[in-house]
Amino acid sequence: MAFEYLEHEADVGIRATADTLEAAFEDGAKAMFNTMVDIGRVSPNVKKTVEASADSIDALFVEFLNHLLSKADSEGMVFSQFRVKIKKAGKGYVLSATAWGELLDQKRHNPKVEVKAATYSGLKCWSDSGKHNVQCVLDI
């Protein structure tokens, strides 16, 4: 996993770095779910799909994370593995993703904090030295 947590006064900042943009999104999702539970204890037994679209890559990252949160909340799940595909669509972008996880088990998954949403605060996506980076602040 190539993600880190950023200092923030009240919430949690996340940053993910990877060789591809898709892998950076995947690691960003891992960072978000690892904020909520110990993802090392989440078995990838159940497969779910999410789709998102946005006018920019930056906005697509926030939309993706929020779609994952919505799926997790509505189905009582947590996720630990992700596969992302991003395509240019007209003037924007479309993302299709698969997430693997299982139903939340309070005893086994060691819940930490509840993430309410991924926000546009601190939102930034960039490439540097052949690496792709994504970051945002999670509202907890």
Tell me about this structure.
The chain is of the alpha+beta class and about 140 residues long. The chain has a single domain (about 5-140), classed as Archease, Possible Chaperone, Chain: A, domain 1 (3-Layer(bab) Sandwich). The chain has 2 helices and 8 strands. The protein has helices at about 20-35, 55-75, and strands spanning about 5, 10-20, 45-55, 75-90, 90-105, 115-120, 125-130, 130-140. The strands form 2 sheets. Strands 1, 2, 6, 7 and 8 form a 5-stranded antiparallel beta sheet that branches. A 3-stranded antiparallel beta sheet has the order 3-5-4, covered by helices on one side. The chain is globular, with a radius of gyration of 14 Å. The two termini are about 20 Å apart. About 35% of the residues are buried.
Would you spell out the secondary-structure blueprint of this structure?
Elements: E1 3-6, E2 12-18, H1 21-36, E3 46-54, H2 57-75, E4 77-89, E5 92-103, E6 117-118, E7 124-128, E8 131-139
Antiparallel strand pairs: 1-2, 2-8, 3-5, 4-5, 6-8, 7-8
Helix pairs in contact: 1-2
Number of domains: 1
Please trace the helix and strand order, writing H or E for each element.
EEHEHEEEEE
User: Could you give the count of β-strands?
Assistant: 8
CATH fold-level topology = Archease, Possible Chaperone, Chain: A, domain 1
Helix content: 25-40%
Short description:
This protein is α+β, with helices and mostly antiparallel strands and 140 residues long. The chain is built from two helices and eight strands; from the N terminus they run E-E-H-E-H-E-E-E-E-E.
